[in-house]
Amino acid sequence: MKVMILLALLVFEICCVNAIPSDGPQFPPPFRPWRSQPAGHLKSFGHQRPPDGPVRPYIDRFLHPVDFWEYHVRNKLPLVYKNAVNRSPAIKLWDDDYLLKNYGNLDVLVERKVENRSYSPRRMVLKGFLKQYKTEDIYVVTVLPDAMRHEVQIVPSVLCGTFKTYLQETNLWIGSGGTNSIVHFDADHNIHCLMHGRKSAGSGSGYSNINVRKVDMKKHPLLSRVPWTYATLRAGDCIYIPGGYIHQVRSYSRTISVTTLFSPTKTFNSSGCENLNMSYTPMSDAPIHWTYKEGDQTIDLGYHNLVIVRSDILRIFDEAKLNKVTRKMFLGRMGRELSDNWQKPVTEVFDKYFDPTGKGFFTKEDVEQLSIESLKGIARAMEVPAGPLEAAEKIDWEKILQEKLAREKKEEEYQRRMQENPPDDEDDEFEDEFRNERQGNDEDDNDEYGMDDDEQDELQDQRKQKHQHQEL
To answer: What is the pLDDT of residue 194?
Structure first.
């Protein structure tokens, strides 16, 4: 058995490090120091210095939650589970046709491929995204819908004790490739599992908001001193990224990932871990805090960590040396310290979550005994959700696509007739009809996109060129 594991490690190193994969560029890239300018100048992130090595892999096995805490989570050390979730039905089933047929009406949140934290996600139905994501600069990052959770295996290393208590949310990522995250860290622990495609991740011990596609080493010379490690994921692989750990992720082709977020804690309670069954468990069986089902008004993505919500309330007790908080105190200073952007009346929050029995006050013991559902209600009241508040508009994407194809076909016919036949009365009549219809469409487009006449003419030229390119 030991020999087989060593061979697997050797193949992994050869395939993903020394060889150039057929589904993307070599990663990590070769290090080539230059004499005339800093190494990696104006090249993608990773060229600036050699990596310290790969993230530690575990092949064809999971760590028991107690060991997972002891050797990785407590010390915030990442790991890679190779072939971890190969039994997930999603790996074989989730092509575009299957997703369109079975989950096309579910709402998802969509962002730009080149990550920009100032850009607000859009909300749309999955079928609309699937019809345009291969040509548009967009990708899905949303709460994994309940209807899809049964087709994804959850890593059993988080299925007992404190981990299970604080499973924050599960996210769905879909893209056509060419995505690059900024160099960043997340507050929650993250287990990122790949269902389709290939992704590479680099991590380091420093932070800089740099252009990861084209690093200016003259502007960021100290980046050459930052140590970093790497991992390459393929379908069925998972990586654990600790909360607060600096990292950057890139994808090369069509990729689908599912991530599990769980809250950081200072200690680990192993209750329920003694007889844990480490066999296949679908995500639908896991007690996830933030979920989404079809018809929900909001998609609860990125809400506050529930452990932090509780600790922030307890911190105010300790700092002010309070035995209890009265209604008046909560409506005043304490409410302002917890949030300056309450989404619900503070009186309603106090009555519903902190003082449901009408005592007129609450204590530290009351806060420590708040249920997960109560903490979720408080978190929702404290901050604006990542997704739009209104339910997504139901759009007939088939109708829109047919209308677009009909317009392109008529425009092609018009151009053909203008080129092949000299104008006569019949052609003038056809031209007037076409121009009137196109003008009407242009006016509609102007209303929708706020374009002026010059911008609309440019858009029409782009459409013609795109159509001609598709013909070729």
So the answer is: 94
